[in-house]
Predict the structure.
Amino acid sequence: MTAFVRFEVVRTLRNIRYLAFLVVMPVVFYLLWGRTGGPAAMVAMSVYAACGGALLGSGNTIAEDRFTGWIRQLRVTPLSDRAWLTGKIVQGVLTVIPGVLIVSVVAVFTGHVELAATKWLGLAALFLLGSLPFALIGVFFGMLFRGKTATVALMLVFFALMFIGGVIAGNTTIPGGSVTPTYNLLAAGIQISQGQPIGGGYLLNLGGWTALAGVAVLLRWRRA
Amino acid sequence: METVFERVSFSYGRTPALTEVSFAVPEGQTVALLGSNGAGKSTTVDLMLGLRKPAKGKVTVLGGRPEDAVAKGRVGAMLQTGGLPADATVTDVVDLARRLYGKRRSLKELLDLAGLTEVGNRKTDALSGGQKQRVRFAVAMAGQPDLLFLDEPTVAMDFRARRQFWQAVKAQGKTVVFATHYLDEADAYADRVIVIDRGRVVAEGTPEQIKGDANLEDALLELTEEGR
């Protein structure tokens, strides 16, 4: 399975559209509007990179591989279906790293963000674990739609989560925004960057989304 | 270690695809499943690979269940509909296959075997149809399989590429099952030919026997014309 995960990650990094959209965009946004925003702006753009990377990182290729028939070819190799599914989820989480890392580096050098090592570690842990619900939603959509339809659907979900969750629009004014996983990931990240204890509600919300998306994936998987 | 179909039936919804199909693939032989498009060849291959389950009857692959043979990496397959992943190079794909089968061959050996050494760094979407087929072949050969399934393997290849391809397959000396709608391909490379028509086995024998069977004349003529 390690070989499979590595293959999928390398493949994602070779995808120019992925890099432009999920790594360059949040960096550009940060440079344009975030440099005076302190750690909060950095965290917001990290949420952008993490949410996008996890949603589109694996979901996209699942839909595409089902469309081209590569999945059928994989199914006649010793890679078990279970290892495949686990691999795609792990891939979704790992593809978050480049975007979040580059946004953070840019914030340190251009936005004069200075955080203690423990806070950086806390943020790293939060973004890796907090990407799980998005990776699962991505996998679910990849199994639900075929080919380009999945890309369009995932883009819609992505922008909806960004706006409703108040990541792009700043302080959320949209009713129900606080239910979204993006809002909770952002809020938890800001708490960590300010050295305050994370409210249990934020983590509970992210855990809930993880469970919900996980069940959806399993139900869909059994049917496929 | 036999591969056997015993009175196997399968249907897509209400449309029957295979009806009471029985045949055996002796070890070490190359067997052709010959039939026109839609005759049931691909369904047969799917059943042998455990991608589908028979509605009736029993499929045995290398003496056991198809999915077990696949899980142990004893089977290699080139699927007609098995596309290649985008955003990956030839080397990425071949190396992945090699690792999934537990590194039974070196990367160089596999690329050589399939004639891919020169295009190793090329992305899969920049390959010609024939080159894509060779990548599929490398994937199928990655685990040194005891049994090789080829579903319409030479469709995108020209005459020379086809000959090279079959030389590489034959050099392995393994049991091979291939589905084709080209009579001349079955004739040239198969030890035994199983003719499938509308989901039933209508004839089985050596290429000579099949060609000499007067009852099959119409069916075979159709195939020859469709062929080239």
Observations:
- The CA atoms of residues 12 and 70 of chain B lie 23 Å apart.
- The domain at 1-74+176-228 of chain B is CATH 3.40.50.300 (Rossmann fold).
